[in-house]
UniProtKB/TrEMBL annotation:
Organism: Carassius auratus (Goldfish)
Keyword check for ATP-binding: yes
Name of the protein in question: Unconventional myosin-IXb-like isoform X1
Ranges where the Myosin motor domain occurs: 145-886
Residues involved in ATP binding: 238-245
SUPFAM superfamilies: P-loop containing nucleoside triphosphate hydrolases, Ubiquitin-like
Length: 886
């Protein structure tokens, strides 16, 4: 796709876009047709134009499918979907060159009258099966050098297993079974085995009948769920860069495709948008992977009993917060910072007060070089498009970017010892950084400086204010940045879940079936391991235990119960290690919590406690007395953990004085981030959007009136102030909501003609009012009746001619429907807010739960969900670079 300005068809944004459409039909046609369309062109109009251009029989039915070869994805567009919007999510190169070889394109396919798609050229499996049958009957010699299932190896040892995997991998067979477990070796290159033909080929097939494939696992879980009415889960494990996230994407795609028979539903579209948003905020370039997920996730796809997707939920685990303030050389901070800094327009740069990337302390610690500026610019556009797909209004996007900018500025806060002799404490600066910070976060400078330099402690009788030492102040500053970012990430996950929610989920009576996919960080053993690795490896111990239970223990018990002669297989039972870490009351995590709460404790006393309590434990390996570290014998090997900062990291919540500071912000979004009332901002966001739309309606009316009277007024916009003056209830609303930031939203500026279009969609003034009432009826306006507000809006001028002439019954939704309901938002908050609350110190108890306790809670919740489901396992392996698929 390419963008052309000026000539030809133009969209609201003044651009015409080129689409290349490849026919995949039973009859021979031209290899491709090129259309020039606007951003608003629907799939239906594109199909019509393509069929005409290609000279096809227009009585036949066709569908348009978006193909993303690298993800194995093929999404059939609904007639109202907008193809150009999809293209805007593609990588830059694919957008610019838009040929099939870039792996992103549109297909035109034929559709049957029952709605199913007519697939042509399905791969044939007949011959292969025939030859297998001949081999089985002894007519052909067995010619297999490699086996699809490791369980069939005549000799089962490490060498034979690795040989088999290697031979298969060299033949580009990256998948192998070990019983029902799928082993996937990352080929680091695209293999053409993921398009919908393969989804179809594996549909409703018994595992093992066809070549091993990830779609086979998706298919088995889907049909097992429907047949047995039991939830299913797929646990994906493997080291960083082994392909877990890619596998998750293939699975989610297949699981939704199976259910929709080729059509993308609203949920899938939201999932589609959720991916790039989560990726921008939760992924970063690391030494092992240019796009490494720095958080664990569990995506649960919910189904109706009929097998149709009805919603989805994303749960996240342990975002790596430390990356925000420091990381290894050649690694990067979260993608979104670079997207913003390189991709923002001049206007955005001014608004968010952006500097050059190398001017930020939080970004310049690594060997800083941005060679991929064009990609980053494109990724920023893609991110914005994806944010829109999950329902972020332009104003919300701007609030998010302001917070990101504030986080970066925090890193530039510096300290020096107070110069004036007698006064103790620190000077904080530089002044321009502090004033920008105060402006971006909308907090007063004085309390900001206080929070950055002094600790406030409240005791029973007294309030103590103590100045930080230099290193304590740096920790406090970084802690503020980390907490803000992780609150932002939690908020984004929450809003994605809100967009993915199906209202039926709120009704208990609706019976629920689901398939969950767990993509969680693998076992870690670095040169220096700390608290983060300790938590991650503990999660892996728990998952290994779950794996053992299902693969060995339960299976063997079943054999015994059925009286089958069976020699129990020895497996490494890791329950001892789990007890060492988490058994009450002396497990390492409990000792850590104890020492984290004890005011005089240090890392040293913590280590002494560990040693004293567990000296005799087989899983607690002795270390030299002086070494500030301890070693644990994990199922995957010994790992040495440095005790330094364990206590501090375990209690790294948002500090109460920082919470108090942010609560005083004049920016509703910042207050919302720290958990005041997630609903409030959301409601006001919608009202604000409605008011803006109405202001513009009004102006369009004026313009029309002026035009018909032969006068064209140059000033095309009513200042909101004018609106305010003329409408008493609106004025009252301003008073009721002093925190609202009603400054005009420039990024939302659209030509007024666009609003005439909206007028055109309403049959009458009554109709327009009905739409707006409908849009805001769920909102609680602090006792204000929305109808009263509308009465005043009724005084706005409407262009009579448009209202009279237009009889088009199709109405247009001003604000996405699924985002209009605060009840559902509250429901999602209830589901996911536990960790946010803890993080932000909002618990009723005096002390919020420690980070490890929160992690343990979310892990137990996960294990409980997994425990109720039938599991499948995918083990991802990272191929080494010498033997990668050529
Ligand atoms: N099946 C596959 N086909 C083609 N390329 C793949 C496949 N699996 C993985 N890759 C490539 O390998 C890269 C790393 O994979 P991925 O990000 O999924 O790893 P990961 O295990 O999730 O890593 P991390 O734990 O760091 O997030 C991907 O960016 C992709 O380019």
């Amino acid at each position: 796709m390419s963008v052309k300005d000026g000539d030809g068809t133009t969209s609201q944004d003044g651009k015409a876009y080129e689409l290349q459409i490849y026919p995949r039909l039973s009859l021979e046609t031209a290899s491709c047709c090129i259309l020039r369309v606007t951003k608003e062109a629907t799939a239906a109009s594109v199909i019509r134009d393509a069929a005409e251009t290609l000279g096809l029989d227009t009585r036949k039915l066709y569908v348009l499918a978006e193909v993303k070869e690298c993800g194995g994805e093929e999404w059939v567009l609904e007639s109202t979907d907008l193809p150009v919007h999809r293209v805007l999510l593609w990588p830059r190169k694919a957008q610019e060159q838009h040929s099939q070889k870039e792996g992103f394109y549109f297909l035109l396919q034929e559709r049957n009258h029952d709605g199913s798609i007519r697939y042509v050229h399905l791969p044939t499996v007949g011959n292969e099966q025939e030859s297998k049958r001949l081999v089985a009957r002894g007519f052909l010699p067995p010619q297999q050098e490699d086996l699809e299932d490791l369980c069939n190896l005549p000799v089962l040892n490490e060498d034979s297993i690795l040989d088999n995997l290697r031979i298969r991998f060299q033949k580009k067979k990256i998948y192998t079974y070990a019983g029902s477990i799928l082993i996937a070796i990352n080929p680091f290159k695209f293999l053409p085995i993921y398009n919908p033909k393969y989804v179809k080929m594996y549909e409703n097939h018994q595992l093992g009948k066809l070549e091993p494939h990830i779609f086979a696992i998706a298919d088995v879980t889907y049909y097992a769920m429907l047949r047995k009415h039991i939830n299913q889960c797929i646990v994906i494990s493997g080291e960083s860069g082994s392909g877990k996230t890619q596998s998750t994407n293939f699975l989610i795609h297949c699981l939704t495709a199976l259910s929709q028979k080729g059509y993308a539903s609203g949920v899938e579209r939201t999932i589609l948008g959720a991916g790039p948003v989560l990726e921008a905020f939760g992924n970063a370039k690391t030494a092992n992977n240019n796009n490494s997920s720095r958080f664990g996730k569990f995506i649960q796809v919910n189904y109706l009993e009929s097998g149709v997707v009805r919603g989805a939920v994303v749960e996240k685990y342990l975002l790596e917060k430390s990356r925000l303030v420091s990381r290894e050389k050649n690694e990067r901070n979260y993608h979104v910072f670079y997207y913003l800094l390189v991709g923002a327009s001049e206007e955005e740069r001014r608004e968010f007060r952006l500097l050059q990337p190398e001017e930020y302390f939080y970004l310049k610690q690594e060997n800083f070089m941005i060679e991929d500026a064009d990609d980053l610019r494109h990724d920023f556009e893609r991110l914005q498009q994806a944010m829109e797909m999950v329902g972020f209004l332009p104003a919300t996007k701007r609030q998010i970017f302001s917070v990101l900018s504030a986080i970066l500025y925090l890193g530039n806060v510096t300290y020096s010892q107070k110069s004036s002799g007698r006064e103790e404490g620190l000077d904080v600066g530089p002044p321009e950084v502090l004033s920008t910070l105060s402006d971006l976060l909308k907090v007063k400078e004085e309390p900001l400086v206080e929070a950055l330099t002094k600790r406030k402690t409240v005791t029973v009788n007294d309030k103590l204010i103590l100045p930080y030492s230099h290193s304590e102040a740096i920790t406090a500053r970084d802690s503020m940045a980390k907490s803000l970012y992780s609150a932002l990430f939690d908020w984004i996950v929450l809003r994605i879940n809100h967009a993915l929610l199906n209202k039926k989920d709120m009704e208990e009576s609706v019976s629920c079936l689901s398939i969950g996919v767990l993509d969680i960080f693998g076992f870690e053993d670095f040169e220096t391991n700390s608290f983060e690795q300790f938590c991650i490896n503990y999660a892996n111990e728990q998952l290994q235990y779950y794996f053992n239970q299902h693969i060995f223990k339960l299976e063997q018990e079943e054999y015994q119960a059925e009286g089958i002669t069976w020699h129990n297989i020895d497996y490494t039972d890791n329950v001892g290690c789990i007890h060492l870490i988490s058994k009450k009351p002396t497990g390492l995590l409990y000792l850590l919590d104890e020492e984290s709460n004890f005011p005089h404790a240090t890392d040293k006393t913590l280590l002494a406690k560990f040693k004293q309590q567990h000296q005799q434990n087989h899983y607690f390996v002795p270390t030299p007395v002086m070494e500030p570290a301890f070693v644990i014998l994990h199922f995957a090997g010994k790992v040495k953990y440095q005790i330094k900062d364990f206590r501090e990291k375990n209690t790294d919540h948002m500090r109460p004085d920082i919470v108090a500071l942010l609560r005083s912000s004049d920016r509703a979004y910042v207050r919302q981030l720290i958990g005041m009332d997630p609903g409030a901002m959301f409601r006001w966001g919608i009202i604000r959007a409605s008011i803006r739309a109405l202001a513009a309606f009004n102006e369009a009316g004026r313009r029309w009136a002026a035009k018909t009277a032969g006068v064209v007024r140059p000033n095309s916009r009513v200042p909101l102030g004018e609106l305010q003056r003329s409408n008493v209830p609106i004025e009252r609303m301003y008073r009721h909501a002093p925190m609202l930031d009603f400054s005009f939203d420039h990024s939302e500026e659209r030509p007024l003609e666009a609003f005439e279009d909206i007028f055109a969609s309403c049959e009458s003034k009554k109709d327009m009012h009905a739409q707006i009432i409908n849009s805001i009826k769920d909102l609680q306006l602090d006792g204000e009746d929305p109808r009263k507000l509308l009465q005043s809006w009724g005084r706005l001028r409407f262009p009579r001619h448009v209202l009279q002439k237009n009889k088009n019954p199709k109405t247009r939704q001003l604000i996405p429907k699924n985002l209009l309901d605060t009840r559902s938002l509250k429901y999602v908050v209830g589901l996911h807010d536990r960790t946010t609350k803890s993080l932000l110190h909002l618990h009723k108890k005096k002390r919020p739960p420690s980070i490890s306790a929160q992690f343990q809670t979310s892990l137990s919740k996960l294990l409980e969900t997994l425990g109720k489901a039938e599991p499948f396992f995918i083990r991802c392996l990272r191929s080494n670079c010498l033997r990668r698929c050529k």
